[in-house]
Amino acid sequence: MIKWSSSTFYFILHNFPLNPPLIHIGALSLQALSTFFQTTSYTQILVLMDENTSDACYPLLKPFLPPHKTLVLPPGEQHKHLQSCMAVWQEMTDLRMDRKALVVNLGGGVIGDLGGFVAGTYKRGIDFVQVPTTLLAQVDASVGGKVGVDFKAFKNQIGLFAEPKGVFIWPDFLETLPERELHSGFAEVIKHHLIGDAKGWEALKTIRSMETLDLAAIIQHSVKIKSAIVKADRKEHGARKALNFGHTIGHAIESEYLDSPVPLLHGEAIAIGMICEAWLSWKQGFLSETAVAEIKEFILTFFPQQKLSKAQFSHFYQRMLNDKKNQGGAIQFSLIEGPGRYQIEQEVPRELIMKSLDFYGEEIG
Ligand SMILES: NC(=O)c1ccc[n+]([C@@H]2O[C@H](COP(=O)([O-])OP(=O)(O)OC[C@H]3O[C@@H](n4cnc5c(N)ncnc54)[C@H](O)[C@@H]3O)[C@@H](O)[C@H]2O)c1
Ligand SMILES: [Zn+2]
Questions:
Q1: Same topology for domains 10-176 and 179-361, yes or no?
Q2: Model pLDDT, residue 3
Q3: pLDDT > 90: what percent of the chain?
Q4: How many CB atoms lie within 10 A of CB 36?
Q5: Is 81 within 8 Å of 110 (Cβ atoms)?
Q6: What is the pLDDT at residue 192?
Q7: For this structure, is 237 an active site residue?
Q8: pLDDT digits (tens, 9 = 90+) for 150-197
Q9: What is the C-alpha to C-alpha distance for residues 361 and 349, in angstroms, rounded to an integer?
């Protein structure tokens, strides 16, 4: 069982210069949500959740909400598509929700991304708030205003930038989160250290189990790093691309596994991507070989090595050719230049990409 020491910890981050969503983190976040409702007047409120967050989280949130309607979707990435959006838009239409209505997204990254997209497009956009309930959503997906859904097997192919009116991060929701999901979120925590905090990485790399982590502090740390990057470059013209470290290869792997009997979780695919892309960072002359070995060893402590076949490699590559970040047909990588520093818009030849996947599969030690 994971312990966290900061039950009274509370932190508010003033995030963006334009229409800033306040990000509340810690023990008082749900009270802050309650205050938000006292200071706003919405005609209707729809709480969107999935079956798991409806069981585990909604009873805890409900006392903090004014009168509202609920809608429960089936859980999982395979439901993050337009069919689910249609079901939500239908419900909103049936409820006659107008432009002064609000959507509350109670769930992980799937509900947050989908609910934000649905709200951001309904009647050309209505307000929404994020109440993230997975570690991945608390440290990453709920921050930064990217919302959207998958299209066929392409990740986040349809979407927009839409800022929530507020983000309310209550770490105690994580108490019911399955361990595999907790690890998945930890991948983004590792990424934030590798791109944004060299000193933090030195401390993080000594840990061998998530049980010793102070999750509330880890969430605050990640949100701070992500917010600072997003603030500098909201629409991803430059600095924000750093957040894609591990994601060019990781997204391709995640997409390829989407329809498999046992899909990989987002963080599990990104963990593989970070090992490959750390190796590419070394090959491009940015990172030392020792640092790559350290990163690989650390990541494999938390994410058991997957058996990837050579036949899959070319499928992954085909998917990378469709990556949203590509420019002029060239696959673009965000690499690291030593922990804490990054290099964006790096083109890497196919042969090296294939070799980086080989490197992932090699045994360590
Ligand atoms: N918008 C962004 O900037 C951004 C960033 C990173 C990831 N993402 C997206 O986030 C998604 C992944 O998010 P995720 O990992 O949170 O997955 P998820 O939303 O599918 O949640 C994982 C599982 O945990 C369950 N769950 C959620 N909270 C729970 C709780 N408190 N107790 C028990 N069960 C709970 C869910 O029902 C689900 O089965 C991907 O689609 C990814 O593309 C978006
Ligand atoms: Zn990610």
A1: no
A2: 36
A3: 85
A4: 17
A5: no
A6: 98
A7: no
A8: 998 788 999 999 999 999 999 999 999 999 999 999 999 999 999 999
A9: 19
Annotation marks residue 192 as catalytic: no
Nearest CA residue ID for atom 13, ligand 1: 109
How far apart CA 192 and CA 200 sit, in angstroms, is 10
Provide the residue ranges of all domains of the chain, joining segments of one domain with +: 10-176, 179-361
pLDDT tens by residue, 104-161: 999 999 999 999 999 999 999 999 999 999 999 999 999 999 999 999 878 899 999 9
The pLDDT value given to residue 140: 97
**Pairing of β 69-73 and β 146-151:** unpaired
Q: How far is the CA of 108 from the centre of ligand 1 (A)?
A: 3
Exactly one of 77, 163, 181, 188 is catalytic; which is it?
A: 188
Give pLDDT, residue 8.
55
Buried b (16+ CB within 10 A) or exposed e, 143-169: bbbbbbbbeeeebbeebeebbbbbbbb
Looking at domain 179-361, which CATH architecture does it have?
A: Up-down Bundle (1.20)
Closest ligand relative to 107 C-alpha: 1
Is it the case that residue 314 has pLDDT exceeding 90? Answer: yes
Q: How far is the CA of 329 from the centre of ligand 1 (A)?
A: 30
Residue 124 annotated to the active site: yes
Tell me how far apart the alpha carbons of residues 30 and 62 are, in angstroms, rounded to a whole number: 10
Q: What residue spans of the chain are helical by DSSP H?
A: 29-38, 51-56, 58-61, 82-94, 109-121, 135-136, 179-196, 198-204, 215-232, 247-257, 266-283, 289-302, 310-320, 350-361
Ligand 1 pocket, residues with Cβ under 6 angstroms: 50, 52-53, 56-57, 75-77, 80, 107-111, 113, 133-134, 136-137, 140-141, 144, 146, 155-156, 173, 176-177, 181, 184, 266
- Structure-block tokens of residue 136: 């991945």
Topology, domain 10-176 = Rossmann fold (3.40.50)
The residue count of the chain comes to 365
